[in-house]
Amino acid sequence: MTTAELIGADPGWLITVKALLVFVVCVVLTLMSVWGERRLVGRMQQRPGPNRVGPFGLVQALADGVKLALKEDLIPAAADKIVFVIAPIISATTCFMSFAVIPITGPVTLFGHKTAMQLTDLPVGVLYVLAIASVGVYGIILAGWSSGSTYPLLGGLRSSAQVISYEIAMGLSLVSVFIYAGSMSTSDIVAAQTSWWYGVVLFPSFAIYAISMVGETNRAPFDLAEAEGELVGGFHTEYSSLKFALFFLAEYVNIIAVSALATTLFLGGYHAPPFLGFTENWLGGWFTAIWFFSKVLVFFFVFVWLRGTLPRLRYDQFMQFGWKVLIPVSILWILVVATLRVLSLQGAPRLVVVAFASAVVFLIMAVNIGFENAKKKKLEAIVDNADAPSFSLPQLPVALTSINVSNNKEGVDRG
Amino acid sequence: MSQTTKKESTVAEIEPLKNSERDLTKVEFSQVDQPGSVGLLGHLKGFWITFSTIFKKPETVEYPEVKAPTQERFHGRHQLNRHPDGLEKCIGCELCAWACPADAIYVEGADNTEENRMSPGERYGKVYQINYLRCVFCGLCIEACPTRALTMTNEYELADDSRAKLIFEKDDLLGPLRAGMLMPPHPMYPDMTDTNYYKGDVTQAHPSQDVNK
User: Fold this and answer.
1) Of A45, A107, A415, nearest in space to A271 by CA
2) Average confidence (pLDDT) over A342-361
């Protein structure tokens, strides 16, 4: 019996319980991850992080939430009031919705009912997640636009441009998973990874997804939309109190959602790591949830690690990286994967498959060498031209020890 | 005479080049190290630094509970000192107030009398105020003080919730009465002048000074 059939038989009350559980798990994970992030970033900077509210500062995020809720709720005079209120609601609801198709456990028994911890199983589950993420962009752009002030508008535009560009790379990186799994349903994709995780088999896809999910969630080093030093707070500059709390919640739930999707598509979802398959039956199958959440937490740790290590990218470099590197690379990778898949499905001999793969590798190496040579030539050309500039220059980014500036006409009376 | 010749020779050595003597057509550049490509391992180095720092002991101090001692000569709150018999050192000269670049000190001096003697000598500081909203803790007042009456402590917790509370009066600034000291006003040590006080001849109060008993 597939997961779709298994959870298709769920009675109404069980679906309600599951929906509630998803919501609670997301909120609790958000609170814990806010605390965990601040502690971890603190340790990375050799300070303890929040440690005063409750044991180890565990209640810090909750205290912050209460404080936010008690703050004055301002709506700027220039704001479009209805849209201003709707925007954070769109952001906060959409981020929860993507969790509906994430399989958290394998088959388990809940209140005497055989089911799996997955709210629903769509045949196009992953596309649904991408679609929901795109709707979430409306929250950001509407918030920026309706605030009626410049910084939020710029932040909102930046943010939506960023999310849309990185969603393309993200969607393309998923195509090779679809090709290999033969399905877009999340539970089928997990089931297809019993022997090999796609994170290993389709490593380039995994890498592209991992990069673009950071861009997609507006997180450091791609947090240009909320660049404190440049745009004050980005799209949520004018927001306060609970509305701001909703954006904050949305950001963290989004991080968890993309991590959960990455776990599902590339790290075998709720499956145990290799050689630990026997643990999947522990606690009546509930132990798989532990594997799932530990994988999600590993992703979350990487998010925090990135934030603690890398400086923010410049906007043009960031867009250039998205459009000129990630998207072309993922398209080429899809070509390669599709060809390999067709070859193996049509029963081509192993030799042909290996030959094709090595041909691709050689092609990439050749292109890379050609690219490096061109770069070297360009640099040499700069050195050749730098012999006699008509004016004095500071050090060029090439190795020079002296420049002749004899044709400098005005330079004689320089002290 | 020998001094002047020596001076002449140094001048000849360091005489600057005139612009006309300089070769402006040749500009020397020192080679700048360009980092260039750092490679994959170079990029991962930063990640290793942040990761390994997680397991290091934090450099911070749990402040309100643990107070790390300041440097010995830290400029903290001021203190008005006393002579060893308890008389005040301040003579109300206002030099600290004049030295203060932030105009944070207000002093009013008054004459000592036989019935009301606060310090040895003629005058004492009747009103002494330091406004800690203005004070920049530069220590110029301490340098200006001719009697070492004004010094600085290492106390740095000076926050409060009103402007009035941050104007410290003489009572707030005066140092405590230590062993052998008597609370002024009281007469000077018998057979001692103010000069003896500054020489350090007075080491503690004499029983005859205890007139408030």
Assistant:
1) A107
2) 85
Please judge whether B46 and A310 are an interchain contact, meaning their C-beta atoms are less than 8 angstroms apart.
Answer: yes
Domain for residue A207, yes or no?
Answer: yes
Q: Could you identify the residue written with the tokens 């779709």?
A: A4
Q: Report residue A147 CA to chain centroid gap.
A: 26
- How far CA A250 is from CA of A31, A87, A105, A163, B147, in Å, comes to 12, 11, 24, 14, 66
Provide residues of B within 8 Å CB-CB of chain A: 19, 24-32, 34, 46-47, 49-51, 53-60
* Contact across the interface for B58 and A46, Cβ inside 8 Å: yes
pTM over 0.80: no
Residue A152 lies in a domain: yes
**Inter-residue contact A38 to A48 (CB < 8 Å):** no
Distance CA B84, CA B91 (A): 16
CB contact under 8 A, A402 and B28: yes
- Does the beta-carbon distance from A48 to B59 stay under 8 Å? no
Is residue A211, in this structure, part of any structural domain at all? Answer: yes
Q: What percentage of chain A carries pLDDT values higher than 90?
A: 19
Mean pLDDT value of segment A200-215: 89
What are the boundaries of each domain within chain B?
78-203
pLDDT range class, residue B167, cuts 50, 70, 90: very high
Domain interval for residue A32: 3-348
Q: Which residue of A has its CA nearest to B63?
A: A52
Residue of A nearest to B65 (CA): A52
Q: Give which of A215, A208, A310 is closest to B44, Cα–Cα.
A: A310
**Pick from B34, B20, B27: which is nearest to A393 by CA?**
B27
Architecture per CATH, B78-203: 2-Layer Sandwich (3.30)
Tens digits of residue pLDDT in A78-129: 889 999 999 999 999 998 888 888 888 888 887 777 888 888 888 888 999 9
How many domains does chain A fold into? 1
Pairing of strands A402-404, B105-111: unpaired
Judging contacts by C-beta atoms under 8 Å, the chain A residues touching residue B50 are 44, 305, 308-309
Q: Is B58 in Cβ contact with A47 (below 8 Å)?
A: yes
d(CA B73, CA B81): 17
CB within 8 Å: A400 and B58 = no
Give a yes or no: residue A373 inside a domain. no
DSSP readout, A196-212? S-HHHHTHHHHHHHHHH
